[in-house]
Amino acid sequence: MSALLDRHAPYVAPLVLGRLADTATTLYGLTVAGIYERNPFVAALIEAFGPGVGMLLANLVSIAAIVAAVEIGLSVAGPVRDAVEWPVEKHLLDIGYLPAVIVSFLAAIHNVGVIAIA
Fold first, then answer.
1. Label partner for 31 (CA 20 to 30 A): which of 16, 21, 38, 47?
2. CB atoms inside a 10 Å sphere around CB 87
3. Rounded to whole angstroms, how far apart are CA atoms 114 and 108?
4. Chain centroid, CA 61 distance in Å
5. Secondary structure class of 85 (helix, strand, coil)
6. Residue from 10, 117, 28 nearest 70 by CA
């Protein structure tokens, strides 16, 4: 388990920052600007548990899904393939997390834009 945490820790930090930026802007929009959540999964969690807990659960699910997807990708493309060692782990981690980090920050920027015009 420690190797798994060590491998993913540098990539999960920016992902968590991006998710927090999205969450903060979403919560602001929901509570102050009168905007509603358009993602049906997140909206259902917010409806069931309230904005704070609903967003927390949505973030935990999304981060766990991303870590699992990257780990599965690493196991499939792994460092040893056809008896040849491939130095791909670092690149797969970069490629696996980068889109999720970008989408998280873009979602936060989008939320700011929606709030600005509301």
1. 16
2. 7
3. 10
4. 9
5. strand
6. 10
Q: Which helix (H) or strand (E) segment is 38 a member of?
A: none
Which residue bears the tokens 């991303």? 66
Q: State which amino acid sits at residue 21.
A: A
Give backbone dihedrals phi and psi of 36, rounded to 5 degrees, phi first.
-110, 160
Query: Which residue matches tokens 């834009």?
Result: 113
Handedness of CA 49, 54, 60, 64 (dihedral sign): positive
**Global pTM value:** 0.81
d(CA 101, CA 28): 21
